[in-house]
């Protein structure tokens, strides 16, 4: 009974506060989560890889490459393994330390001028164990476990960040392809306008200034087309880095050119717009379980709480139990005989009497670290809520704006056709043609830019809502490419 009581005492007593997840008031629903819906067949949920909702096999393949070879992910994976090892080290202190030793020695003695040689042989085992009466070791193990869980969440956050950045860069590259295709068609149209104006000038029905205006407009469009190459190249280089490859060893073929269309967008743009997925945001309270950065901050708060117990346990004495046993003999042949047996049992109690206030300062330090971790956790939650609200608002506004912009494109295209017909009929000057063509190009490029912003914001919303990740989700084994 005494042994059972002692075991219960050793197992049940742990100084320091038991951890309770910090609470904070959360809204019942998102402010910006209105009735709007993006018209799309895709759906992002926690049961699928979210990037597949965009329906692009090239993007899917790039994400797979990034998961395997991105160096930031490799770094986070290595840090996760490091945290796991640290947790195992902390837990190992809960168990006794057992050692073995064996030795042989020869010594010479000199007694009254008589020299003698003596041999000695030893072999044995020893063990020591710190009785964790006050829970110092257990609190340290709790902190180690929480830090490992925080590192797992940090790895998930790094992976999500890389995936989202890669998806945004890829989608922006495809939008740049759309803009290049738009300017390519514009250059072709402006070339025809210059040829028409030149023929009319040669026939005496147009002014030399009309030819100059047509050529100016053409050269400006050609310059813009060339300038888009720089944007595309930079995005291509960024994608190469994200998938762990040198820019010189990577390239993406452009979209196949689409035919001109009277609608606001060509076929390629329409396909991209149709890829915009529906993104269920859930409830604000669910965000605590869906964002890995929030889980990371919460686990760090748990580790900081456990460290308070470690600091407070330093106020109490430590009890170390030790035991050893083995054999000791002057003759090797008699080493394992019964008379050669030796053993010892012992206990040591140690307590710091004076440390100049160091223990009190360490306790204050641990409490302050916990308060800081709680504040960081709450700030991370608030930041996550803001990101969701921001991207919900952005997507809703862009959805309405793109509808109005599509109408503006159609009106501008009609005005461009009418102005060209009137110029050919001689009822307006070429300045009217130039003005309407510039307006049409500006509106078409604005429509494509809005599509790009919608795509980027949709990825940002996926990231803001956690990308399908859930707290407690089993962490996959990290890739071995960088080991």
Description of the molecule:
- There is one protein chain.
- The model is unreliable at 35-44 and 476-483 (pLDDT under 50).
- The longest helix has 67 residues, at 136-202.
- The protein has a single domain, classed as Outer membrane efflux proteins (OEP) (Up-down Bundle).
- The protein has 10 helices and 4 strands, in the order H-H-H-E-E-H-H-H-H-H-E-E-H-H.
- The chain is elongated.
- The protein is α+β, with helices and mostly antiparallel strands and 483 residues long.
- The two termini are 53 Å apart.
- Keywords: Coiled coil, Lipoprotein, Membrane, Palmitate, Transmembrane, Transmembrane beta strand.
- One of its GO terms (cellular component) is plasma membrane.
- Residues 59-86, 211-238 form a coiled coil.
- Assign the CATH topology: Outer membrane efflux proteins (OEP)
Query: What Rg is obtained from the alpha carbons, in whole angstroms?
Result: 37 Å
CATH superfamily caption: Outer membrane efflux proteins (OEP)
The largest β sheet comes out as:
4 strands, antiparallel
User: Which term fits the overall shape?
Assistant: elongated
Cα(first) to Cα(last) distance is 53 Å
Give a quick precis of the structure.
Residues 59-86, 211-238 form a coiled coil. 59% of the residues lie in helices and 11% in strands.
Protein topology:
Layout: H1 2-12, H2 57-69, H3 71-92, E1 97-111, E2 114-131, H4 136-202, H5 208-242, H6 267-274, H7 287-290, H8 292-313, E3 318-329, E4 341-350, H9 358-424, H10 430-464
Antiparallel strand pairs: 1-2, 2-3, 3-4
């Amino acid at each position: 009974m005494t042994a059972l009581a002692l075991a219960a005492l050793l197992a049940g007593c742990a100084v320091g506060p038991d951890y309770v997840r910090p609470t904070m008031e959360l809204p019942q629903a998102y402010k910006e989560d209105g009735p709007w819906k993006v018209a799309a067949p895709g759906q992002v949920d926690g049961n699928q890889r979210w990037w597949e909702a965009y329906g692009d096999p090239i993007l899917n393949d790039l994400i797979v490459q990034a998961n395997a070879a991105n160096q930031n992910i490799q770094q986070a994976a290595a840090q996760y393994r490091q945290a796991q090892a640290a947790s195992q080290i902390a837990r190992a202190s809960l168990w006794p330390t057992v050692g073995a030793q064996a030795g042989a020695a020869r010594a010479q003695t000199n007694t009254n001028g008589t020299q003698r040689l003596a041999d000695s042989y030893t072999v044995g085992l020893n063990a020591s164990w710190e009785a964790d009466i006050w829970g110092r070791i257990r609190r340290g193990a709790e902190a180690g476990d929480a830090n490992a869980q925080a590192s797992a969440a940090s790895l998930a956050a790094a992976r999500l960040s890389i995936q989202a950045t890669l998806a945004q860069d890829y989608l922006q590259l495809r939008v740049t392809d759309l803009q290049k295709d738009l300017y390519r068609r514009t250059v072709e149209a402006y070339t025809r306008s210059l040829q028409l104006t030149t023929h009319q000038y040669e026939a005496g029905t147009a002014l030399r200034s009309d030819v100059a205006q047509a050529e100016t407009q053409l050269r400006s469009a050609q310059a813009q087309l060339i300038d888009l190459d720089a944007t595309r190249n930079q995005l291509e280089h960024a994608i190469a880095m994200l998938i762990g490859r040198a820019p010189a060893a990577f390239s993406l073929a452009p979209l196949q050119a689409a035919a001109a269309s009277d609608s606001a967008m060509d076929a390629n743009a329409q396909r991209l717009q149709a890829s915009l997925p529906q993104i269920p945001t859930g409830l604000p309270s669910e965000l605590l379980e869906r964002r890995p950065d929030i889980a990371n901050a919460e686990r760090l708060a748990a580790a900081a709480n456990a460290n308070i117990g470690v600091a407070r346990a330093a106020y109490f004495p430590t009890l170390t139990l030790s035991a050893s046993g083995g054999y000791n003999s002057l003759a090797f042949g008699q080493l394992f005989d019964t008379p050669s047996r030796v053993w010892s049992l012992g206990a040591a109690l140690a307590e710091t009497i004076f440390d100049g206030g160091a223990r009190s300062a360490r306790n204050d330090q641990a409490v302050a670290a916990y308060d800081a971790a709680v504040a960081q956790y709450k700030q991370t939650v608030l930041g996550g809520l803001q990101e969701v609200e921001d991207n919900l608002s952005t997507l809703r506004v862009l959805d309405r704006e793109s509808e109005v912009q599509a109408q503006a494109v159609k009106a501008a295209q009609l005005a461009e056709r009418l102005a060209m017909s009137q110029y050919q009929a001689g009822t307006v000057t070429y300045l009217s043609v130039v003005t309407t063509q510039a307006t049409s190009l500006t509106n078409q490029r604005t429509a494509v830019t809005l599509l790009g912003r919608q795509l980027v914001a949709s990825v940002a919303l996926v990231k803001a809502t956690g990308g399908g990740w859930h707290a407690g989700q089993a962490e996959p084994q990290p890739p071995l490419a960088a080991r």
